[in-house]
Amino acid sequence: MNLRSFARTSLALVGLTVVAACGEEPLPPKDCTQDTGPSTLAHSPSGSSLTYSVKYEVTHSGEGSLRQITYYNGATSQVTVENPTLPWVQTLTLNSGSSAGIGMVGTVTNGRIEVKYTATAIASGTTLQKTANRVCEQVQD
């Protein structure tokens, strides 16, 4: 390799290194401490008690971690799940008058975490449904 070829190759490599170094800085982790808050499951329109199937779900995509999930399992009782494996699903049977709700503690760097619940009851051929969700998202452009 002659001196000119060596110089051109060296300058090209330096240029590529500078372009790569000028790329976007990595995002700092975003706090994902959120919850839906408790919600009381309704009685039937006639006032009688209902049984609800409550499905709690936590999903994620991209980079992030979840340290804790907290959900209601009835009246005002809460259950805490430490370091859950995602995706996570829990289905419970609750009566009207019970509390439903879900929360999370974690972080995302370049991704998305969603907690949600769907409570469904059937009363006299009518479906009653209550849903709530929270999303924590941070995406680098």
Provide a concise account of the structure shown.
The protein has 141 residues and is mainly β. It has one helix at 3-21; strands at 30-31, 34-35, 39-40, 51-72, 78-82, 88-95, 99-100, 102-123, 126-138.
Overview of this structure, please?
- The structure is a single chain.
- The protein is mostly beta strands.
- The protein has one domain (26-138): Immunoglobulin-like.
- It has one helix at 3-21; strands at 30-31, 34-35, 39-40, 51-72, 78-82, 88-95, 99-100, 102-123, 126-138.
- Strands 1, 2, 4, 5, 6, 8 and 9 form a 7-stranded antiparallel β-sheet that branches.
- β8 (102-123) and β9 form a beta hairpin.
- The chain is elongated.
- The two termini are 41 Å apart.
- The model is unreliable at 11-21 (pLDDT under 50).
Question: In terms of per-residue confidence, which ranges show pLDDT below 50 for 5 or more consecutive residues?
Answer: 11-21
CATH topology: Immunoglobulin-like
In the CATH hierarchy, what is the architecture at level 2?
Answer: Sandwich
Envelope shape:
elongated
Percent of residues in helices comes to 10-25%
Radius of gyration: 25 Å
The beta-strand count equals 9
Task: Summarize model confidence as the mean pLDDT.
Answer: 85
Question: What's the helix-strand series?
Answer: HEEEEEEEEE
CATH class: Mainly Beta
Number of helices: 1
Q: Give the biggest beta sheet.
A: 7 strands, antiparallel
The domain tally reads 1
DSSP strand content: over 45%
Distance between the termini: 41 Å
Structural class: mainly beta
